[in-house]
Amino acid sequence: MKVLIVGSGGREHAIATAVAKSPKVDKIYCAPGNAGIGQVAECVKIGAMEFDKLVDFAKEKEIDLTVIGMDDPLVGGIVDKFEEAGLRVFGPRKNAAILEGSKAFSKDLMKKYNIPTAGYENFDSPEEAMKYLETSKYPIVLKADGLALGKGVLICNTKEEAMDGVKELMLDKKFGNAGNTIVIEEFMTGREVSVLSFVDGKTIKIMTSAQDHKRAKDGDQGLNTGGMGTFSPSPFYTEEVDEFCKKYVYQATVDAMAAEGREFKGVIFFGLMLTEDGPKVLEYNARFGDPEAQVVLPRMKNDIIDVFEACVDGTLDQIDLQFEDNAAVCVVLASDGYPVSYEKGFEIKGLENFENKEGYYVFHAGTKAEGDKIVTNGGRVLGVTAKGKDLKEARANAYEATKLIQFENKYMRNDIGKAIDEA
């Protein structure tokens, strides 16, 4: 088979690494890819939003399956374009990717189908939003309706902060049109857990759980980022939580989308909050999480191509999804100053230490090749992932492995997976 992966981050590198393990695949392309992906796939200089060029490329190279990694092209309708051209593609169509593309849509869907989530209201008028905040309870959460690189969520402790947040999202357009509509949501407390799943339109198969660390600095301080590290499985995702979610969240979401005429095929990422009143849905994503993919996919036993094809063909019920009985931790190495401002172009040294190192991975996010060097080219540069027999061992292995890589302005959190000690 020939496979095309669309995207350029650590998630796409994790997908490419899993695809490369399949005996069914003899050629992988990635558009646009990055320096690390270039070691397992041929990178193609086509942007993820250049749909027509991607379709033409897939036809020209007789690609058997295209896998869409990123949210923007999914929400923009890339899957529809590929299907119209008669090409096989893994990911939700535009009318299903709205599950991630519009937080207002997903909140209304949960309300309509009694899927547990926080109380909320949607606003497309800043004046109405501010009026609502006058009588709200604090803290409170503001969410940009559209895609905002995982950063469009503001937790506001006071009315003043919330008013400033409305201004930032709706008037100053910090995230562009993503803030034309906002969701104002009650603040929930509890443990956050990420659960990824494969979906074929009717059947859903749950992957192993994970937990992300969004804030830039230790102790969950600092600004929201795309994710500074993650671990899998989450010790807080118990059998009891699993049973509840299977009954009231997972299948209910797939059935709700089907009932709305929005059949969902691909990956649904469930962001859950384990509250005192039981698990509730914080958010949906319509693709693999990043960096969650970097700890979940290395633990998957199945040939990922079999699973992708079953989702496309509607035969997921025939797949026995299996994961290794171990753990994985990913620590993101970022450029100091991320997510605000940072320098790029520094040489990365030590990558050769990971060649043929069993149970260790370096997933490239913001890198590029310059001659025979690999240099930093983004805020999140690399995801260093290590396995272990349990979470403590995996965490120790991952942090030990981060010492093998050096670049100027290297920055990381030192407490990824610290919650494990409290479990």
Report on this structure.
- The chain is globular and about 60 Å long.
- α7 (126-134) runs antiparallel to α8 (159-171).
- The chain contains 12 helices and 22 strands.
- The longest helix has 21 residues, at 239-259.
- It is α+β, with helices and mostly antiparallel strands.
- The termini are far apart.
- The mean pLDDT is 96.
- Strands 10, 11, 14, 15, 16, 17, 18, 21 and 22 form a 9-stranded antiparallel sheet that branches. A 5-stranded parallel sheet has the order 3-2-1-4-5, with helices on both faces.
- β15 and β16 (278-285) form a beta hairpin.
- The chain has 4 domains: 2-93, 3-Layer(aba) Sandwich (Rossmann fold); 119-186, ATP-grasp fold, A domain (Dna Ligase, domain 1, 2-Layer Sandwich), CATH 3.30.1490; 191-318, D-amino Acid Aminotransferase, Chain A, domain 1 (2-Layer Sandwich); 328-422, Phosphoribosylglycinamide synthetase, C-terminal domain (Glycinamide Ribonucleotide Synthetase, Chain A, domain 4).
The low-pLDDT segments are: none
Topology-level CATH name of the largest domain: D-amino Acid Aminotransferase, Chain A, domain 1
Helix content: 25-40%
Shape: globular
> Which radius of gyration do the C-alpha atoms yield?
21 Å
Q: What is the overall pLDDT average? A: 96
Major sheet: 9 strands, antiparallel
The tally of helices reads: 12
Q: Architecture of the largest domain, CATH level 2?
A: 2-Layer Sandwich
CATH class of the largest domain: Alpha Beta
Strand-residue proportion: 25-35%
Would you tell me the structural class of the helices and strands? alpha+beta
Going by CATH, what is the homologous superfamily of the largest domain? Answer: ATP-grasp fold, B domain
Task: Quickly count the domains.
Answer: 4
Terminal CA distance reads 43 Å
GO molecular function, one term: ATP binding
Family: Belongs to the GARS family.
Cofactor: Mn(2+); Mg(2+)
Pathway: Purine metabolism; IMP biosynthesis via de novo pathway; N(1)-(5-phospho-D-ribosyl)glycinamide from 5-phospho-alpha-D-ribose 1-diphosphate: step 2/2
